[in-house]
Amino acid sequence: MRHRKQGRKLGRTKSHREAMFRNLVVSLFEHERVETTEAKAKELRRIAERLITKGKQGTLHARRIASRWVRDPRVLQKLFEDIAGRYSERPGGYTRIMKLRNRRGDNAPLSIIELMPAGTPVFKTSKKAAPAEAAPVTSKESFEEEAVEAAAEEAPAEETIEAAAEEAPAEEAPAEEAPAEEAPAEEAPAEEAPAEEASSEEENAGDGEEPEGQKEA
């Protein structure tokens, strides 16, 4: 088992492997893209991105550490003055690997490793729907309190409906009693009856007095 063993040996000794990666990293910074096998490209990415981070620091100590890998002074100057300045706003991911084809002969997968374009990275927004918010967990006591509050809110609504139903017939009652107020107007002729009776009594009285006058005559 290969526990806690980083990196790929690539069928080479340590000195051969380090010399190969020194040549690859110089070629990458000089031409800004290299075509190699997929395994070598993945190992080269680790070294190249660490050297770019050293170039962003810009100190003398960082330059001396980078010179262990970049043995060409012209390429080393390009790393610290040009390449590191492109990625001042990028927090990482200075290279990318694109798969090409399988090599004829040994069928090894080939890839291109190249430097990313300058500027701030643009992140793609995911098109997945936002996850539904989980319903809050309510205890038995809170559920009972909510039920009591809901019942208290419904009780005034029912009382207002009953009060409105009781007031509606009370308002209609005066409209039905209106004809009762007109009744005295129809009874007015009944009050004229005593006047007619009084006139008839006077006539009778007049008829009764004539015989007395005749008697006096």
Instruction: Profile the largest sheet.
Output: 3 strands, antiparallel
Record field, number of beta strands: 3
In total, the number of domains comes to 3
Low-confidence stretches: 209-217
Radius of gyration: 57 Å
Q: How many helices?
A: 6
Question: In CATH terms, what is the architecture of the largest domain?
Answer: Alpha-Beta Complex
How far is it from the N-terminal to the C-terminal residue, by CA? Answer: 171 Å
Taking all residues together, what is the mean pLDDT? 78
The CATH superfamily of the largest domain turns out to be: Ribosomal protein L17
Any descriptors?
single chain; 217 residues; mainly alpha; 3 domains; 62% helix; disordered C terminus
Structure commentary:
This protein has 217 residues and is mainly alpha-helical. It folds into three domains: 14-115, 50s Ribosomal Protein L17, Chain: A (Alpha-Beta Complex), CATH 3.90.1030; 137-180; 187-217. Helices cover 62% and strands 9% of the residues. It contains six helices and three strands, in the order αβαααββαα. Helix 1 crosses helix 2. The N and C termini lie far apart (171 Å). The relative contact order is 0.07.
Topology:
Elements: H1 14-31, E1 33-37, H2 38-57, H3 60-66, H4 73-86, E2 95-102, E3 109-115, H5 140-186, H6 188-216
Antiparallel strand pairs: 1-3, 2-3
Helix pairs in contact: 1-2, 2-3, 2-4
